[in-house]
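Researcher: I'm preparing a figure for a lab meeting and need a structural model of a single chain. I don't have an experimental structure, so a prediction will have to do for now. The sequence is pasted below. Please return the structure as tokens so I can convert it later.
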Amino acid sequence: MSCKSLMVMGWLLLSRALPSEAQLGKTFTGKASFYAKKFQGKLTACGEKFKEKALTAAHRSLPFGTMVEVTNLRTRKKVVVRVNDRGPFNRGRILDLTNAAARQIGILKAGVASVACRIVGIEGIVMLGPDEYIIHNTADIVTTLGPSPRQRPY
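Model: Understood. Here is the structure written out token by token.
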């Protein structure tokens, strides 16, 4: 591969739409629903196969790869999802969640729920503030008032 080809490929990779640092922490609220089972295995807008057991979501305009913390406003349950599709195409909805994400925040029975969303990272990387940490083996983001459990006293 020539040097010019490598430079063009690098430029294409770096210029890909990603959420800017300014978007981190941005919040928005609205209604979320979840995908029907008929979409299993079909291609999403970003080219991935849809997997109902993955923690992903569809949003109309957020760049693919944006990590969003979604909180069910009724139950206060949270999940972190990665945007990999476009939608929802139903008026009044801001997110379509996978079955797995909808289950984690408790909206499977109702089908639709009021949610609060916060942009927390890009491309599978969750960027936390100094007073936040992720609980091992979950997608829960916890805010602490004191030092995080990861800090050592020495």
